[in-house]
Amino acid sequence: QVQLVESGGGLVRPGGSLRLSCAASGTFFSIKAMGWYRQAPGKQRELVAVVTSGGSTSYADSVKGRFTISRDNAKRTVYLQMNSLKPEDTAVYYCNAAVVVTLFQEYDYWGQGTQVTVSS
Hints:
The protein has strands at about 5, 10, 20-25, 30-40, 45-50, 55-60, 65-70, 75-80, 90-100, 105-110, 115-120. By secondary structure, it is an all-beta fold.
C-alpha cells in the first residue's frame, strides 16, 4: 500500500511564503513524476507544478517565478516552495505521484490535501 502524506499548509498574508511537503511511504519499486495540484472552491482541480524523476520541472503560468518544486528521491519526498503568495492561490493543495509498484504495474496516487489560505 502506497501513501502520500502532505504537510505545510496554513494561513499566510499576501506576499508571504509557505513550503509544502509530501512524503511517500509503503513498498514500491520507484516513483516517476511527482506533482502538486490545487482546487479552489467552485473550481476544477488544476496542475500547479510537476517534477520528473530526472529533475525536470514544469509550472502553471500562474505560478511561474513564484513557486519552486523540488524532490528528494532518497527521502521519497516532493516539496513546493511558494513565495509571493496571492489571495488567488487559496486552495486545497494535493500531492500526486506516479508510482511504479512492480516492474509491470504503475499507479497514480494522491495525498489527502492540505489547505492553503492567503488572506490579510
